[in-house]
């Protein structure tokens, strides 16, 4: 600690603090404009000037000057006030004073400082800027006339987002912020720049003219899209979520959000929301009362036994999933599952066997504390963008080494010194086995490894996985495999990350075990900065696993679909899933849902699946309910309703509870009661209460009982003359729900197929050509996107879009062989 | 890239041969701090830095396209539009100004139908006003590429244009 005096107060601050930080932690406010705690010190605006006695009263910027022992600092002498006023006067010189029409009014640093420092006249005068305003995209408006050149937007887009869309252009008086060739903004639309802009230069267009900042009620919540579990503040007025409000102190991510979190909230108040129960009468879904609808469902479930089955979206709260399970048990059925039955297998089968726990023994916080990251699939950025930010910062600010094993390149591959090994699709498990084999052969395994059960079997099983043997099938050189294995083993701390989800059938139990073997072999587990993080797709995927909402005694999702087709399953209750779009093989799914006698769907929207139902129940979004979500790293977080329920919708908690009661069961009254039960019975959740979760949530413990498991590998045989189609996530989307978020749909409105330049040239395909993509099970038409990241012979298509019909082609295999014609 | 933006970008760009850029990039690819030499090299080759080339350099050197543009606009030496075969520079420094440079400038504007820092559509001429060229004794002064023309008059403007109109473009 360093001792110093600020404004005649004796204070202490940690070594390496700046004057600004030292003042802040001691409750002394120094005004800032260009400084941001998340960004590297910049020192451009001189708003934060202070006087340091030791420097003979010289004025220095507090945000960049480090403290020294005995420093005597004054933050608001008359000279300082004068200097700050001058800074403001100069800024206001070219700044249009259009606060009354500027959306930033009320939340603007420049406005607030001008008011605080009583700058009500200007000694100078100059022309205002005449920059054209960029209205070219529907999400972010750029009005550089209001810009104070603090550089925060360009810095955050580089330092954290690593997109680099914005930069300083020209020099001298002409300097401005812009994109290449003065073009319009064309980026990943995470809105980070908007969130840090101190003035009204960068504005969120969907919120424009909706409300003044002070008229909003801020409601804290947790993002309802992916499993990162980002914290959100919803700006609410008149029972409408009008925007997300940036709070730099919120969450591990300091308020950073991705495009979905920041701009995808519109589904909450969408006018497409279902508002009344619907019952099919004479073939058409007709409005009905809750009582009528629930009676029908209860009558079907009562005593149904194993002829009833349930599928739930892992977007439901933990409490809802517990209740759903109880409802099925009350009906006498053990047939319940989620995420097509395979998307959680990495946890429920893979980690369950390898670690003795269906959870990841590492957290997102380990990313920046590691020495080496091994990321399986560049899609990790697309599936969990804010985890992507953590990776960016680890690599760029902390010098963490990044290794990527992927079937294509991606944004992560562009990070400084990132090593990307692009393997043939479907060969990842073999490659990881070869890494393990190298570690064994080079005697790089930790001393503890041999004592872990299954060691001998693994050693034997890996015999065929020499780097040389795997090189052929993976398209990698044996040297590259060996180098990666040695780097991984040599790193003191190493963390492996991989995404799982509906679109990643190859990321299964075997991949999880293969990866676990690596960590166990080298002892990189259970210490800070090391371990394995399995990134599950939806906001409560890990919760669904923790609540046991998957098949243990009954049918899994795939078998349930088969059961519907065969007639064994007569009543299917689907809560929030949209299998018609998100499960593989649409023709088979549609046929099964057609066949099942009675289909109940509870959802926010009339999805493709709901449209086939006999009873449709309008459910609530996360913004209307109470409960808990568990993130990919098992952070359990509590959400409270931010708005009242839309229309007659009910939470799934209420729906399941009322049905349990109708079946004669005992339904817990509140989510809090159920969370109490969860805390009492779920491994790792012991002792948790709403109070103990607080605002930041709490981590459920993961107790590892290690074992080596031999992963199965399936050789992917290339099909002559065909291309390998792999499915996945698009950056702007998550599941099928983001199709009702306007922001994501503005930026990425439809499905597409990505292909390499080489294939495009060979097949004479141009950007945006409509291609017929056909596999053994069907075909669909997709727009072509030609990108340098795709290797020859490989196609990529995101799975979210109902209209794109990727699952007409894709039958659930990790690699689908297709032909492409114009 | 949104479709409209992509489409717009495509339409505005003339075709450029990226293999020329490849040669320049290959030369410097392993050099640390290679951005400036590469940009200078491509400008030498193409006569300016076409957008497609800038984007391509960004891709190959793994830097943000915006960053390249920042550099291109920071240094006056880079040109973002095609330049004429003949660069006409007229000095507007103090000495030249008082000896009538403004009229010389105006005359060039009138005859060539272009303004400062602009290029004729046939890519024959680019016109630039410049500050003192260091030969004030010959004021007012004009230059065409490396040829100097002192004691400029309105009539001499006609002569210069007539002469350079004859020169071959290749
Ligand atoms: S929205 Fe995100 S990616 Fe786009 S310019 Fe802003 S910070 Fe960069
Ligand atoms: S646009 Fe905003 S954040 Fe960017 S430099 Fe200008 S004032 Fe700063
Ligand atoms: S979608 Fe995921 S990464 Fe994006 S803001 Fe929401 S939780 Fe965070
Ligand atoms: S806030 Fe310190 S110089 Fe801008
Ligand atoms: S002023 Fe024209 S050459 Fe010096």
TrEMBL record, chain A:
Pfam family, one: Molybdopterin
Ranges for domain 4Fe-4S Mo/W bis-MGD-type: 216-272
Domain of life where this protein originates: Bacteria
CDD domains with a match to the protein in the record: fer2 (cd00207)
4Fe-4S His(Cys)3-ligated-type domain: residues covered: 79-118
Keywords carried by this UniProt record: 2Fe-2S, 4Fe-4S, Iron, Iron-sulfur, Metal-binding, Oxidoreductase
Segments forming domain 4Fe-4S ferredoxin-type: 138-166, 177-207
Record's keyword annotation contains Ion transport: no
Cofactors: [2Fe-2S] cluster; [4Fe-4S] cluster
UniProt domain 2Fe-2S ferredoxin-type: residue ranges: 1-79
SMART domains found in the cross-reference section: Molybdop_Fe4S4, NADH-G_4Fe-4S_3
Protein name (Swiss-Prot/TrEMBL): Molybdopterin-dependent oxidoreductase
Annotated organism of origin: Oryzomonas sagensis
From TrEMBL, chain B:
Species whose genome carries this gene: Oryzomonas sagensis
Source organism, top-level taxon: Bacteria
UniProt keyword terms in alphabetical order: 2Fe-2S, Iron, Iron-sulfur, Metal-binding
Family classification: Belongs to the complex I 24 kDa subunit family.
Record SUPFAM superfamilies: Thioredoxin-like
The keyword Chloroplast appears for this protein: no
Obligatory cofactor(s): [2Fe-2S] cluster
Protein name (Swiss-Prot/TrEMBL): NAD(P)H-dependent oxidoreductase subunit E
A Pfam family this chain is assigned to: 2Fe-2S_thioredx
PANTHER family linked to this entry: BIFURCATING [FEFE] HYDROGENASE GAMMA SUBUNIT, NADH-QUINONE OXIDOREDUCTASE, E SUBUNIT
ATP-binding found in the keyword field: no
């Amino acid at each position: 600690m360093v001792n110093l005096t600020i404004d005649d107060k004796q204070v202490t601050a940690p070594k390496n603090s700046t004057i600004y930080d030292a003042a802040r932690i001691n409750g002394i406010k120094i005004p800032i404009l260009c400084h941001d705690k998340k960004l590297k010190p910049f020192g451009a605006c001189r708003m934060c000037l202070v006087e340091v006695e030791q420097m003979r009263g010289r004025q220095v910027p507090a945000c960049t000057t480090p403290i020294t022992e005995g420093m005597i600092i004054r933050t608001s002498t008359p000279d300082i006030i004068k200097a700050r006023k001058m800074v403001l006067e100069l800024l206001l010189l070219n700044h249009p004073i259009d606060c009354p029409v500027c959306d930033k009014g009320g939340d603007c640093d420049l406005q607030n400082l001008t008011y605080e420092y009583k700058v009500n006249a200007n000694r100078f005068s100059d022309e205002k800027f005449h920059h054209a305003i960029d209205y070219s995209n529907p999400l972010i408006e750029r009005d550089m006339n209001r810009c104070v050149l603090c550089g925060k937007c360009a810095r955050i887009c580089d330092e954290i987002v690593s997109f680099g869309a914005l930069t300083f252009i020209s020099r001298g008086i002409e300097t401005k912020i812009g994109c290449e060739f003065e073009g319009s903004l064309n980026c990943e639309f995470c809105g980070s720049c908007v969130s840090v802009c101190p003035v009204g230069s960068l504005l969120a267009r969907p919120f424009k003219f909706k409300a003044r900042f002070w008229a909003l009620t801020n409601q804290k919540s947790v993002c309802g899209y992916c499993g990162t579990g980002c914290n959100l503040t919803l700006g609410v007025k008149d029972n409408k979520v009008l925007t997300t409000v940036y709070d730099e102190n919120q969450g591990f991510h300091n308020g950073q959000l991705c495009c979905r979190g920041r701009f995808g909230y519109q589904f909450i108040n969408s006018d497409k929301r279902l508002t009344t129960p619907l019952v099919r009468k004479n073939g058409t879904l007709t409005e009905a009362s809750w009582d009528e609808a629930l009676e029908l469902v209860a009558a079907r479930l009562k005593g149904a036994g194993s002829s009833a089955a349930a599928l739930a979206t892992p977007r439901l709260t933990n409490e809802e999933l517990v209740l759903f399970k109880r409802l099925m048990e009350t009906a006498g059925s053990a047939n319940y599952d989620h995420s097509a039955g395979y998307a959680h297998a990495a946890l429920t089968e893979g980690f369950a066997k390898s670690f003795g726990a269906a959870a990841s023994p590492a957290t997102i916080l380990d990313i920046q504390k590691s020495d080496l990251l091994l990321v399986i699939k560049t899609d990790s950025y697309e599936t969990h963008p804010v985890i992507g930010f953590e990776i960016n910062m680890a690599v760029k600010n902390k010098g963490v080494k990044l290794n990527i094993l992927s079937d294509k390149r991606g944004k992560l591959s562009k990070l400084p010194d990132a090593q990307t090994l692009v393997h043939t699709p479907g060969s990842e498990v073999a490659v990881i086995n070869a890494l393990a084999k190298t570690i064994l052969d080079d005697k790089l395994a930790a001393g503890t490894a041999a004592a872990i059960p299954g060691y001998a079997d693994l050693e034997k099983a890996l015999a065929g996985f020499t780097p040389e043997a795997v090189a052929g099938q993976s398209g990698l050189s044996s040297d590259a495999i060996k180098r990666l294995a040695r780097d991984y083993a040599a790193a003191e701390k190493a963390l492996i990350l991989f995404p799982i989800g509906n679109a990643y059938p190859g990321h299964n139990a075997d991949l999880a075990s293969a990866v676990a073997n690596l960590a166990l072999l080298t002892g990189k587990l259970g210490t800070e900065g090391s371990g394995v993080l399995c990134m599950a797709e939806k906001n409560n995927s890990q919760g669904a696993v923790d609540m046991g909402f998957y098949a243990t005694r009954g049918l899994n999702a795939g078998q349930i679909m088969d059961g519907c087709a065969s007639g064994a399953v007569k009543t299917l209750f689907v809560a929030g899933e949209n299998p018609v779009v998100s499960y593989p093989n649409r023709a088979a799914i549609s046929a099964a849902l057609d066949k099942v006698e009675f289909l109940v769907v509870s959802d926010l929207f009339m999805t493709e699946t709901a449209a086939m139902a006999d009873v449709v129940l309008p459910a609530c979004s996360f913004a209307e309910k109470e409960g808990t979500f568990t993130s990919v790293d098992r952070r359990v977080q509590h959400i409270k309703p931010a708005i009242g329920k839309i229309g007659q919708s009910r939470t799934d908690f209420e729906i399941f509870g009322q049905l349990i009661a109708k079946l004669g069961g005992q339904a817990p009254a509140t989510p809090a009661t159920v969370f109490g039960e969860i805390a009492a019975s779920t491994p790792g959740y012991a002792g948790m209460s709403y109070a103990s979760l607080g605002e930041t949530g709490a981590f459920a413990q993961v107790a590892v009982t290690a074992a080596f498991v031999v992963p199965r590998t399936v050789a992917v045989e290339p099909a002559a003359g065909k291309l390998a189609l792999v499915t996945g996530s698009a950056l702007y989307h998550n599941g099928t729900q983001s199709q009702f978020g306007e922001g994501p749909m503005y930026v990425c409105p439809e499905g597409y197929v990505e292909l390499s330049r080489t294939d495009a040239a060979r097949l004479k395909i141009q950007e945006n050509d409509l291609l017929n993509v056909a596999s053994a099970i069907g075909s669909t038409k997709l727009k072509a996107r030609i990108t340098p990241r795709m290797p020859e012979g490989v196609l990529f298509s995101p799975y979210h879009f109902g209209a794109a019909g990727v699952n007409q082609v894709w039958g659930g295999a990790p690699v689908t062989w297709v032909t492409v014609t114009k | 890239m949104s479709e409209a933006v992509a489409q717009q970008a495509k339409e505005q760009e003339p075709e450029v041969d990226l293999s020329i850029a490849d040669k320049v990039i290959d030369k410097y690819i392993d050099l640390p701090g290679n951005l400036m030499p590469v940009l200078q090299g491509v400008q030498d080759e193409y006569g300016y830095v076409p957008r497609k080339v800038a984007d391509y350099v960004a891709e190959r050197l793994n830097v943000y396209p915006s960053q390249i543009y920042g550099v291109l606009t920071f240094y006056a030496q880079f040109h973002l539009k095609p330049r004429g075969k003949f660069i006409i520079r007229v000095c507007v420094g103090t000495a030249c100004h008082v000896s009538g440079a403004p009229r010389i400038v105006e005359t060039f504007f009138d005859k060539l139908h272009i303004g400062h820092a602009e290029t004729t559509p046939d890519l024959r001429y680019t016109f630039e006003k410049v500050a003192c060229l260091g030969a004030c004794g010959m004021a007012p002064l004009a230059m065409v590429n490396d040829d100097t023309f002192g004691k400029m008059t309105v009539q001499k403007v006609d002569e210069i244009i007539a002469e350079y109109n004859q020169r071959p473009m290749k």
